Amino acid sequence: MTVKFFSLTIIVFATIVCASSSSLTEEKVENVYGPSITDGNCTSTPANELVYTDHIEKRFIPFYERSETSIYYGDKIIYCIKVKNLRTSNVGHAKIIGGGVEHPFARIYTESARSHGMDFKIYIYAK
Ligand SMILES: *[C@@H]1O[C@H](CO)[C@@H](O)[C@H](O)[C@H]1NC(C)=O
């Protein structure tokens, strides 16, 4: 009876530890996907460290999701990526699908909501 109780306690405890550590990991990568993205340390972004900008704008096509992948390759290490969604409703989403912060390159996928257009601005800072 006591042994059963203890093993149950251990299982419950282990489950809690696993669940909380996996949610921590999710928090870390949370900002590489969303309607807008701010990834890395963007507290100080001097203009001379802005290495790439892109404006991705596509008109809607009924029943379709529009998409595009913006690709940057450089020789400095990226420390901040901002993807600003300029739409206010049916905003779609952006996702960093390769490289990114701490890499010299980034691949950023953007997708509109179905039957809607998209309008994203991308800023990459590296040094
Ligand atoms: C972010 O960058 C600023 C300026 O470069 C620096 O002072 C700060 O310590 C950095 N913060 C973190 C969490 O790395």
From TrEMBL:
Signal peptide range in chain numbering: 1-19
Keywords of the record: Signal
One Pfam entry name: MBF2
InterPro entries referenced in this protein's UniProt entry, alphabetically: MBF2 (IPR031734)
Superkingdom of origin organism: Eukaryota
UniProt source species: Sitophilus oryzae
Protein name per its UniProtKB record: Uncharacterized protein LOC115877441
Gene: LOC115877441
